[in-house]
């Protein structure tokens, strides 16, 4: 299995060990990527872009809160 398939939020192995929570929580992302709370790594350009790219939506949480509090 390819290295980038680990902790990508998709079960690639039949026994699902590629997405085990205790392994993915300690995943280290490269400097050019954002680490979701799930351990998933995504491109920095995808953070606060209005779309959920992390499976737990942690890349959009602050964006949603700011939009809720800002006056219209």
From TrEMBL:
From what superkingdom does this record's organism come?
A: Eukaryota
Q: Which Pfam families match?
A: Ldl_recept_a
Sorted keywords for this record are: Disulfide bond
For this protein, the record's Gene3D superfamilies field holds: Low-density Lipoprotein Receptor
What InterPro entries would the database entry show? LDL_receptor-like_sf (IPR036055), LDrepeatLR_classA_rpt (IPR002172)
Protein name (record): Uncharacterized protein
* Alphabetical list of PROSITE patterns matching this protein: LDLRA_2
**Which residues pair up as cystines?**
29-41, 36-54
